[in-house]
Structure prediction request, 202 residues.
Amino acid sequence: MISAEEHARLENAIREIEDQTAGEIVVVVAGQANHYRSVPLLWALLGALVVPWPLIWLTDLSSARIFQAQLAAALAFSLLLSWPALRFALVPRSIKRARAHEAAAREFLSRGLTRTREKTGILIYVALAEHHAEILADTGIADRVEPQVWPAIIGRLAGEIREGHLVDGLVAAIGEAGAILARHAPPRFDDTDELPNKVILL
Prediction:
């Protein structure tokens, strides 16, 4: 997803921004937010529910034979739909968006962004397969910033990703989020770097 040189570029961007603020920025880039392992089973069960009806109407098969055909269909559907590309394609967009948001919230908690001294941590999260990006901010900064600021940054980041410029988009988003942090959470004389500046790839 990101080369070693691009990784270093992003880390430098985070480091330079954090020199200007007491806030913390963490960037997480996921290839896919969720594996959607329940999707093949759900579709297989739905398909298996349909299988008996044409057999009942059009054949003289016994109930036991129809039941066996239903089990065989469920197994075949589940194996076929376990192919990752097909499985992902069957997931509704709303579910993809919800799973990506849940993944972002988990990363926000697990990366320590709620444990900074002034509650001014920011997560920039991107799930490439779901075409999803969002910014989550802790209460110390979220309460001071108008809510529409973050979607505007994400909109520009999403545009860069669509053009194939993931790293350029992230650098710009880091800069914009950092400028907001610098305005609302300026650096303190005793400020320390509370979280690693590395970009997390999942």
